[in-house]
Every structure is written in C-alpha cells, then in structure tokens.
C-alpha cells in the first residue's frame, strides 16, 4: 500500500488541502538541502519531492535550473542522494519521493537505484521524462519493492495516454497544468482542470495532483478544489534564497494556512 496515497486520501476524506513540496538535493550544499527538506516537512508539507540535480533539465524553469546547477557545481553526485535522503526520512514521517530524469537512473542502474532508494527510506520515484510504455524495468522493480511510481499527465496527452499514466502510477498521478517548463506563474493555466478530469475519467482511484505554475495560497486552494493536491517547487527555492530556512518555513505555513 502506498504511504503517499494514504496521506493524500486521508486529507481528501477530512476535507483538508494537500501540499506537495519540491526541493533539490545538494542545494546549496548537501547538508543545507537536508535541513531545508526537514524544515519543509516540519512546517506542513504533506509529501516531499527531493529533486536530483541534472545537467540537462529540459522541463525545469530558471529558478530550479540555477539551483541544480549550483548543486552540481558544488560537487553533487548521484551517490550522495541516498545518505541525504536517509537523513531526511529518519527525521520526519512525511513520505519522501525522489524526482529525477531517467538518464541518471539508467546510468546508475535501475534495480540498484530502486534498492538504494528503498534502503534510504524513500517512498518512491517521480520520473518526468519516462512514460509507462518505456518503463518495464522500473515497473517490475517498483512492484517488487512496493515503491511509488509517479508518471506525468499533460494537456497534450490522449485519453489513452492519460489512462495508461493513471493505471501505472502509484502514489499519485502528476498532472502538468501547462505545456512548457516549470516555474511560478501569476495565473494558473485552466488546462489543469481538463487534465485532472481526463485522468479521473479513466476510473482510477489513484490521487491526482497538479504541479507547474503554482505560487500562491489561493492557487493551492483552487487546485485542491478539483484535484487531490497542489505541487509547489520554484516558490520554495525563491523563499530559501531570500531568507533561508526561516523564510522557507514561513512560506510553507502560509501556503498551508491560506488554503484552509
């Protein structure tokens, strides 16, 4: 059973908003990213996304790109992910998902990555550039280890593709609200509702959460009115850059309290 889905379903059943927060591993240093992630969980993030820095982040906006570039410049290696992840998961009860492009995982070894992820207490993996049709190895080992696997659903996805993402995802389905790169936007794309509706039309019982472009408590509330959670990333990095751990905590609490 998915701990991530359990948390999201419980929040839905009690009519409480779900906030999923992203922060990159190794930014600005490995120890700093661990402290930031723990602070986010302690301040109200319901599910945490621990991002893997990558040299070709095609989906990420400028804020995340610059943060991950700094992590790589400071020496982050994929092997560093797992001890950092373990420090986070040992400190909090929040489900922690790793978010990574697929190429680093292939180079590391899919089964090796999955077993190290499980051993470090990770709840599962978000793979923004991997589709279920090409995920046979990951589907098999995640099934064996009972790891969440989150696939994307986009405004351009066909009904068949939405149904495939829904049926193969565990934890939640990641509904992309806009076509394009991530980053906070003043106006959340209305296509998000259509993507969520398309996924739910497949009959899935898996939660559907919306990300890319969410930057205010009002948007968190809006998304939670039709989806099972709101995903925020760039805003948390901006808060950390502006005021460190304290402002990061305050931003998490603002998004949570403002969406109640």
Question: Can you characterise this structure?
Answer:
The structure is a single chain. The chain has 260 residues and is α/β, with parallel strands linked by helices. The protein has a single domain, classed as TIM Barrel (Alpha-Beta Barrel). The protein has helices spanning 3-13, 30-43, 62-73, 81-91, 102-108, 110-119, 136-145, 159-168, 191-200, 217-226, 234-258; strands at 19-24, 47-51, 96-99, 124-126, 148-150, 152-153, 173-176, 208-211, 230-232. It has a 6-stranded parallel sheet. Strands 6-7-8 form a 3-stranded parallel sheet, with helices on one face. β1 (19-24), α2 and β2 form a beta-alpha-beta unit. α2 runs parallel beside α4 (81-91), α8 crosses α9 and α10 (217-226) packs across α11 (234-258). The longest helix has 25 residues, at 234-258. The mean pLDDT is 91.
């Amino acid at each position: 059973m998915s701990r991530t889905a359990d948390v999201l379903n419980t929040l839905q059943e009690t009519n409480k908003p779900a906030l999923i927060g992203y922060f990159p591993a190794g930014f600005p240093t490995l120890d700093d990213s661990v402290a930031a992630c723990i602070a986010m969980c302690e301040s109200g993030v319901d599910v945490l996304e621990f991002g893997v820095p990558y040299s070709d982040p095609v989906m990420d906006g400028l804020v995340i790109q610059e943060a991950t570039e700094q992590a790589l410049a400071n020496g982050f290696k994929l092997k560093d992910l797992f001890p950092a992840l373990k420090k986070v998961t040992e400190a909090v009860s929040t489900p922690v998902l790793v978010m990574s492009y697929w190429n680093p995982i292939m180079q590391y070894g899919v089964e090796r990555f999955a077993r190290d992820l499980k051993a470090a207490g990770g709840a599962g993996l978000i793979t923004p550039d991997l589709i279920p049709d090409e995920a046979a190895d990951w589907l098999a080992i995640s099934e064996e280890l009972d790891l969440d696997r989150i696939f994307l659903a986009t405004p351009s996805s066909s009904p068949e593709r939405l149904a495939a993402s829904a049926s193969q995802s565990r934890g939640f389905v990641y509904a992309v609200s806009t076509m394009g790169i991530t980053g906070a936007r003043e106006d959340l794309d209305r296509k998000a509702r259509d993507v969520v509706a398309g996924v739910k039309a497949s009959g899935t019982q898996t939660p559907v959460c919306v990300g890319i472009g969410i930057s205010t408590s009002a948007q968190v509330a809006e998304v939670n009115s039709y989806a099972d959670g709101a995903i925020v990333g760039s805003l948390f990095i901006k808060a950390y850059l502006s005021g460190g751990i304290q402002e990061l905590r305050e931003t998490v609490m603002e998004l949570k309290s403002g969406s109640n």
